[in-house]
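Before any further analysis, backbone shapes were mapped to integers, which produced the following:

***
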Amino acid sequence: MSENRDGGPAFPTAMTATTNNPVGDGRTLQTHYGSQAGMTLRDYFAAQAMAGCISNYESPINRNPKMIKMMAEYCYSCADYMISAKEANP
């Protein structure tokens, strides 16, 4: 598992490029594009679990801040288990 146990980036980009854009006075402006990690896999898994938990908007759980906090903690716990399972079975 990764050092910080977050599963690494969920949607990494490996693009690296440099573009040369002409500026009106004859100069060229270089723009560099690098990679971005985005959200972690742990955050993505937790968000997907939360979407399932709150899909029933009429549920009284969705109106109780203490229950929402408990759901968030539960969703991150689910994400941690998903990452562990993923790394145990590559």
Remarks:
- The chain is about 40% helix and 15% strand.
